[in-house]
Amino acid sequence: MEKRDLHISKREVKPSEGGERNSQGGRPHCSFITIKNYKYELKNFALSSCNCTCNGAKHFARRIAFMEKGKGSVDKELNRGRQEVSLSAFSILYSEMVQYCLYKSKRGYRIEDCIHEMGLRVGYKLSEYLSYRNKTKRSINILSILTFISKHVWKYLFQHSSDLLKSQDNIYEYMICDKNMILNKYINVPKDYGNINCASFAAGIVEGFLCSSEFQAEVTAHTVSESDTESNTTIFIKFYPEVVEREGAH
């Protein structure tokens, strides 16, 4: 088949005998796209003057105008103010997440593992987002990245910082202590389910953040009771031996 250049421009449609309506009872349609050398171009883009009621044409017109402004979803800036969510709304959402994990536990899954896996996905994405948003340099040692998590990441998620502790007996172990963990604040675990800690979601976030930054570790959540009425949530972090050996080599 011989290739030819196509040129479709706005055409004039004469009104029918019944007035300005065409033979089908509608208003005249028009073409407003130029196809030339197999590339789509916009030509004489003025729907207001062509008296056109084609829904597809109007939608295309709005889409092109929106794209020309450069405000597509890809062009939006990430470095914006943080959008806060009310504690009540988050509590309802998180309780539904726990209920979902409870449903999965009846099919052979552990509740804490399910909650931990959800946090793991958040941690991977949060690492990329905060690194780009804060324009920070990549952490190259364990202490710097744990300090960043306990201060900046915790404040971004829970609006307060936490305490970072290092084990005196094991060089692979660190702990992040939070005295006001909101993940456990409105969760009532039945006694027949044992010692389930719903802060495993935060442990998953920390593990995902560390693994995304090439600091492989196992992270778990534990509750430490200080008195009958007060308890702390401890995020226990145990790094892989190769991570500690890599840092010692530098």
UniProtKB/TrEMBL annotation:
SUPFAM superfamilies per the UniProt record, alphabetical: Ligand-binding domain in the NO signalling and Golgi transport
Region (Disordered): 1-26
Biased composition (Basic and acidic residues): 1-20
Pfam families: TRAPP (PF04051)
Record localization: Endoplasmic reticulum; Golgi apparatus
Keywords: Endoplasmic reticulum, ER-Golgi transport, Golgi apparatus, Transport
A GO term from the CC aspect: TRAPPII protein complex
Descriptive protein name: Trafficking protein particle complex subunit 5, putative (TRAPPC5)
Organism for this UniProt entry: Plasmodium ovale curtisi
Lineage of the species this protein comes from: Eukaryota, Sar, Alveolata, Apicomplexa, Aconoidasida
